[in-house]
Design goal:
mainly alpha, 159 residues, 2 strands, two-stranded parallel sheet
Length: 159
């Protein structure tokens, strides 16, 4: 059986894998790393709703209200930003290719198409006429909550 090029994706959430294990994987496989970052408030409420309902995948949370503790939201946001900074700095120090994408930006087919083609590294081409299906459509109706969006950052930035 011959080898075929493909795109393999592994989703890792902040602190779900020990940093040392993640570093070992990055060193071993030298992947193209995509940081898919989401609006802090949306991520926080999604996690809280999953905790309430016990449904962690493909969930529809209509009618599930969440009380928001501002100090907890700030703590969770700060921890996520610190983790992304640490991991991006590590990836860059290892010479890995890093793409930084805001979750909501993938609502735009052009952005989604560009990301997919970048990840495929020339092994596939997605025709402009080929429709893309994204599970992110519910994000399109969100109100702008810029105070909860990740600021632009680099491995050395304070944000």
């Amino acid at each position: 059986m011959g080898q075929q090029a493909g795109v393999n994706v592994v989703k890792v959430f902040p602190r779900h894998v020990a940093d040392s294990q993640l570093e070992a994987l990055l060193r071993t496989f030298s992947p193209h790393v995509v940081f898919l970052r989401r609006n802090h408030l949306d991520r926080f409420t999604s996690i809280e709703r999953a905790k309430q309902t016990g449904t962690w995948q493909n969930a529809q949370y209509g009618g599930v209200d969440v009380a928001i503790d501002q100090s907890e939201l700030q703590r969770v946001s700060s921890e996520a930003q610190a983790w992304y900074r640490e991991q991006k700095a590590l990836c860059l120090s290892l010479g890995l290719t890093v793409t930084d994408v805001a979750y909501e930006d993938l609502l735009d087919d052009k952005n989604l198409r560009t990301l997919l083609e970048t990840l495929a590294d020339g092994h596939i081409t997605i025709s402009d006429s080929q429709p893309l299906s994204s599970s992110l459509s519910k994000q399109g109706e969100l109100q702008d909550r810029s105070e909860y969006v990740f600021p632009a950052w680099s491995p050395t930035s304070a944000s």
